[in-house]
Amino acid sequence: MREHWALDPNITYLNHGTVGAPPRCVLEAQQKLRDEIERQPSHFLLRELAGIRLGADGAKQPRLRAAADEVGRFVGADGKDLVFVDNATSGVNAVLRTFDFREGDEVLILDHAYGAVRNAAEYATRLRGAKVRVVELPESITGPWAVIEAIERAIGPRTRLALIDHITSESALILPVAEIASRCHHRGVAVLVDGAHAPGAIPLDVPSLAVDWYTGNLHKWAYSPRSSAVLWTAPERQATLHHTVISWGLDQGMAQEFDWPGTRDPTPHLAAPAGIAFMCELGVDNVQRYSHELAWNAGREMAARWNSTLLGPEDMIGTMVAVPLPGRLGTTRDDGIRVRDALLFDHGIEVHVYAWKERLRVRVSAQIYNEMADVERLINALSTF
Ligand SMILES: Cc1ncc(COP(=O)(O)O)c(C=O)c1O
């Protein structure tokens, strides 16, 4: 499958999950869109794209809305409940910055949460005199119940919002968001899901999770060009949601607010359906099954070689796997950077190596252009350190 990607053939690329890598055919679709825009930039951006600045003629659906419908079908959602954002960080920020926090309120966030997202929660709560409460998950997660119970125990009388990862970043675990949401709602706590790694990586039907907001990147596992992500919002939450950038669409509805946050390049969003079409052509199940099996086998192989343990059971692992590295490689952030750079510059391997919870870890992303030989190359390279 490697020929479908523009990736440097001299590099073993095991880092798909970090910033994604769009297939060539999607980049070509994006270029076609750019060419179309540049023939008549004002017409495209002011009339066709969002149909708000000069007024929609009503005859044609704005291009962004048509793209939202197509992406919606891929994630089980109605396009009208879906808006495009540049990335999951922006999606999380939009919700946190407009959530009606009161003094003393708490937002729950997991110790496995992505650092930038945690910062967004710290900032949004700081502005309103609310605070972030970090839920510590057990060191060894034997199954989804360990996560559900830890979150339930952390809910207090001032908890208003739980910010839950669908697939965690550093530990690469799939969390049981539907069950967590049900427990949170039962206690009057709203749920925002950070699904940065989920669309394309695992089967996804957003409305069935019954959460309040769900944001997910398309540019990681759904083969979209960067920067492309979606934010789904339950109908009853839409009136109070605003884009972090206030523009012409203020108070005209979610689509109007998010479809025009000022002039920008819309091609990553408009090309998202091309990424989905490519995955459908290959067979979404085939792609997900191949990546999952490779991630799982890679994880077991690495753990066996380094005498370490995986962070969760197979049903909590999707297309990425995180494994603790041997202690001799170090424990600090700087050690992680040193190992990561040496892997790239001395061995031609790009992979995420990082310090987390006082251990160095490696997170292998398994995309359909990878195979077990890539993982063997990584293991052999690390044995020379
Ligand atoms: C769980 C999680 N949330 C959010 C993000 C941020 O994604 P982006 O940089 O596309 O906003 C990441 C990035 O890897 C992530 O792993």
What is the secondary structure topology, with strand pairs?
Elements (H helix, E strand, L loop, with lengths): L11 E2 L2 H4 L4 H16 L1 H9 L13 H12 L7 E4 L2 H11 L7 E5 L4 H14 L2 E5 L8 H11 L4 E7 L11 H10 L3 E5 L18 E5 L11 E5 L20 H6 L7 H4 L1 H11 L1 H23 L13 E5 L8 H15 L1 E2 L1 E5 L2 E7 L6 H12 L2
Parallel strand pairs: 1-10, 3-4, 3-5, 5-6, 6-7
Antiparallel strand pairs: 2-8, 7-8, 9-12, 11-12
Bound molecules: pyridoxal-5'-phosphate.
Structure, described:
- The longest helix has 23 residues, at 284-306.
- The chain has 14 helices and twelve strands.
- The chain has helices at 16-19, 24-39, 41-49, 63-74, 88-98, 115-128, 144-154, 177-186, 254-259, 267-270, 272-282, 284-306, 333-347, 372-383; strands at residues 12-13, 82-85, 106-110, 131-135, 159-165, 190-194, 213-217, 229-233, 320-324, 349-350, 352-356, 359-365.
- The model has no long low-confidence stretch (mean pLDDT 96).
- The protein starts with 11 loop residues before the first strand and ends with a helix.
- The protein folds into two domains: 2-22 and 283-383, Aspartate Aminotransferase, domain 1; 42-278, 3-Layer(aba) Sandwich (Aspartate Aminotransferase, domain 2).
- Strand 3, helix 6 and strand 4 form a beta-alpha-beta unit.
- The strands form three sheets. The protein has a seven-stranded mixed β-sheet with strand order 2-8-7-6-5-3-4, sandwiched between helices. Strands 9-12-11 form a three-stranded antiparallel β-sheet. Strands 1-10 form a two-stranded parallel ribbon.
- By secondary structure, it is α/β, with parallel strands linked by helices.
- The structure holds pyridoxal-5'-phosphate.
- Pyridoxal-5'-phosphate is lined by residues 87-89, 114, 116-117, 165, 169, 194, 196-197, 217.
